[in-house]
Amino acid sequence: MRNKNSQMVFIDLKTVFVILFFMIFLLIFMINFINIKDKFTSELLYRTSNRLPTEFFLELTSNEIALLGESDIVDVSNELPSLSEFITRSVFDIRHKDITTLFGNEIPSFRTFNTEIAVAGMGTDLSNLPTESSPPLDILLKERELAGQELEESNSNQGNTLPPKETGEEEIFIYHSHSWEAFLPELNGVTDPDSAVSFNENKNIIDVGKSLQEELNKKGIGSKHSTTNATEELKKKDWNYYQSYTLSREIVQQVMAQEKTIQYLIDIHRDSQPRSVTTMDISGKPYARLFFVVGKENANYDKNLSLAKELNQKLEEKYPGISRGVFVKTKDDGNGVYNQDLSSKSMLLEFGGVENTKEELDNAIKAFAEVFSEYYLDAEQVNGGSEVDGV
User: Fold this and answer.
1) What spatial distance separates the first Cα and last Cα of the chain, rounded to whole Å?
2) Rg of the Cα atoms in the chain
3) Which residues contact 235 (CB under 8 A, 6 or more apart)?
C-alpha cells in the first residue's frame, strides 16, 4: 500500500511538471506571437537574471560540474531560495527577508530611500534625496513645441559656440540620457514641475551640456557633446522611457569606437527637487547646486566612486555648499550601471533642479569646469611624468 501511494505521488509530480512546462511554453508563444512591446529581449532577460541570487546559478552550474557542488566556498544548500522565494523575487522583485522591497513597490517614492549617501553635502539627508524626473509627456510636449519653438532665438545663438582650442586629443564626452529634462524658468506659462520637459535645446538639459563644453574649450580642454533628442530616438525604436540608458549606451559606444581617446564620460541631468534644496548663495552669487550619482552594479564602481569623491572635495574646497554630495545607486532604486562600466572615468552629474534659473546654472557650470580642468590638467601632468619615468 505504501509503495502504491509513493507511486501515485510520483505520477502526480510528473503531471504537475508536464503541465507547468506546457504553460511556460504557451506563455512564451503568446508573448512572442501577439504584438506585445516587452518581448523576451536580451535587455529583459538581463534585468530578470540580475534579480536572481548568485547561488541560484551556482546550483544550476553545479548540476553539470560535480566539483563545483562540492566547493566549500558557498554552502548552496543553505543559500538556495525556496520555490516561493524564487518566484516572488524574479517576478515581483520582492525579497522575503527584506520587507522594504514590498513597501518599495507599493508606496510611491519609497525606493528613493535605497539610495546610499556616500558623501553628504551641506543639508543633505534622507528628506531631500535626489528625485528622478518624470517621463516626457508626449501630448504636452507636442503642444508646447508647436506653440513655442522660438527658432529665431535658436538661430541667434548658433554663432556663440567657441571652437575647441588645439589640445591634441578629445578625452571628454558629454551626453544626456534624459535630454528632455528642462527648467521651469525657461518654460513660459508652465508651473507644474512634472511638466518641465522640452525638445528645445536652448531650454532643456542639453543647453547645460553646451555651456559646459564651451567652458572646457576656453580652458583648452577638447570635448565632444551629444545633442541627441532622446525622446524622438526612443520613439523611433519603439522603446519606452525606461530604456533611455540603453539608448545613451549605444551613443556612447559609437563615439568611443570612433574616438579612441575618449576617457571621461559625463552624463548630465537635472534633479526634480525644489530650489530650496538645489540652490545656494556663495560669496553673494546664486549657484545651482550639483551632485554625483555612482552606479554600484558594475566593475568600475570603486574607481568611479573615487573620482566623484575627489571632484566633490575639490568643489567644496573652492565653493563651500555647491555640492549636495555623492550618491550611490543600485538596481533597487535606479539603473544601477548608468553606462559607467564603459569607463573608469565616468560621471552622472546633476546640475540644479527643476526651478533653477539659467544664471544659477551658468555659475555652477563655470565652477565645475574650473575645478574639473584643474583636476584634468593635474592628471595629465602625472600621466605624462609617469611615461617619462618609464622610458
Assistant:
1) 85
2) 25
3) none
Q: Which three cell numbers stand for residue 91?
A: 517576478
Specify whether the CB–CB gap between 205 and 176 falls below 8 A. yes
Closest residue by Cα to residue 162 from 235, 127, 211: 211
> Cβ(223)–Cβ(170) under 8 Å?
yes
Positive or negative CA dihedral for 284, 378, 224, 136? negative
Do the Cβ atoms of 340 and 348 come closer than 8 Å? yes
What average pLDDT score do residues 54-63 get?
54
**Residue 269 CB coordination number (10 Å):** 23
* Strand 345-351 with 264-269, pairing: parallel
Q: Quick one: pLDDT at residue 90? A: 53
Distance CA 257, CA 171 (A): 13
Q: Are strands 116-120 and 323-329 parallel, antiparallel or unpaired?
A: antiparallel
Helix (H) or strand (E) holding 54: helix 54-62
Mean per-residue pLDDT, 255-277? 95
What's the distance, CA 261 to chain centroid?
23
pLDDT in tens, 73-130: 344 344 555 655 655 555 555 555 554 455 454 444 444 546 788 787 787 777 667 7
